[in-house]
């Protein structure tokens, strides 16, 4: 049985960094599921059609990390048919041996509800805005507005809203280093193995 690590949390909480580190540590596959929604939004046209016809090349576009792509992603991510079109790809990815790490918003609640490890990564608004601003070379106050708008949309949508699974462990990265966050995540995985 492949081992699945499900990681969810709001934007710029540190979940991607933890996901990459865990995948490297355990030799697991890693999927940043936000990229699927970003690529779907960036394709333009009918978002349902875009999600259904998503191809590997679509994930290679170099504008997918921008704040605009993030906003567009969170709008189309509220459409139930867009989400359902992307479920099978994610589940198939998660089924790979020897294991995988998937990070997103609904991995522990919808995509892989039976994952033996579920992490919900959070950080304060100020810390998240500062991180994203440094990453994108932008203004922290503007980033804060954008993150809060995106989080609200992700939390309040009807289909697969952002929330921790009942059996998720919360890691707050506001006041700890990347090394400490990764060590905490590894300790949680070790207890489940
Ligand atoms: O994680 P990232 O910031 O790249 O995600 C972009 C947007 O894609 C999120 O704001 C969210 O609306 C959507 N998303 C989602 N479910 C996921 C991953 C991302 O709805 N599993």
Describe this structure in words.
By secondary structure, the protein is α/β, with parallel strands linked by helices. It has one domain: P-loop containing nucleotide triphosphate hydrolases (Rossmann fold), CATH 3.40.50.300. The model has no long low-confidence stretch (mean pLDDT 97). It has helices at residues 15-26, 34-43, 47-52, 67-76, 80-94, 107-111, 125-136, 140-156, 178-192; strands at residues 3-8, 29-32, 99-104, 117-122, 169-172. The structure holds cytidine-5'-monophosphate (C5P). Cytidine-5'-monophosphate is lined by residues 11, 33-34, 37-38, 70, 73-74, 77, 104-106, 150, 154.
Attribute tags:
Rossmann fold; binds cytidine-5'-monophosphate; 13% strand; 193 residues; five-stranded parallel beta sheet; alpha/beta
**Percent range for helical residues?**
40-55%
* CATH topology-level fold name: Rossmann fold
Written as H for each helix and E for each strand, in order along the chain, the element string is EHEHHHHEHEHHEH
Quick one: overall form?
globular
- The CATH architecture classification is 3-Layer(aba) Sandwich
Within the largest sheet, what's the order of strands? 2-3-1-4-5
CATH superfamily: P-loop containing nucleotide triphosphate hydrolases
| Helical/strand content category | alpha/beta
Largest sheet: 5 strands, parallel
Question: What is the domain total for the residues?
Answer: 1
| Helix count, DSSP H or I runs of 4 or more residues | 9
Strand content: 5-15%
The molecules bound to the chains, other than polymers, are: cytidine-5'-monophosphate
Radius of gyration: 16 Å
Mean pLDDT score, rounded?
97
Q: Give the low-pLDDT segments.
A: none
Number of strands: 5
Distance between the termini: 12 Å
Q: Mind telling me the CATH class?
A: Alpha Beta
GO molecular function: ATP binding; CMP kinase activity; dCMP kinase activity
Region (Disordered): 139-168
Biased composition (Basic and acidic residues): 147-166
EC number: 2.7.4.25
């Amino acid at each position: 049985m492949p081992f699945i690590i499900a990681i969810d949390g709001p934007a710029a909480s540190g979940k991607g960094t933890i996901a990459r580190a865990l995948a490297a540590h355990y030799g697991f596959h890693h999927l940043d599921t936000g990229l699927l929604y970003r690529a779907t939004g960036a394709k333009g046209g009918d978002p349902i059609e875009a999600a259904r016809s998503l191809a590997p090349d679509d994930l290679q576009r170099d504008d997918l990390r921008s704040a605009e792509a993030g906003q567009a992603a969170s709008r189309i991510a509220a459409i139930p048919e867009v989400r359902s079109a992307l479920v099978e790809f994610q589940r198939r990815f998660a089924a790979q041996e020897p294991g995988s790490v998937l990070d997103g918003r609904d991995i522990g609640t919808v995509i892989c509800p039976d994952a033996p490890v579920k992490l919900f990564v959070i950080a304060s608004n100020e810390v998240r805005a500062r991180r994203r601003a440094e990453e994108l070379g932008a203004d922290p106050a503007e980033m804060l507005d954008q993150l809060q708008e995106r989080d609200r949309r992700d939390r309040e949508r009807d289909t697969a809203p952002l929330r921790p699974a009942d059996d998720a462990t919360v890691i707050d990265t506001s006041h700890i280093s990347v090394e400490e966050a990764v060590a905490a995540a590894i300790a949680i995985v070790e207890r489940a193995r």
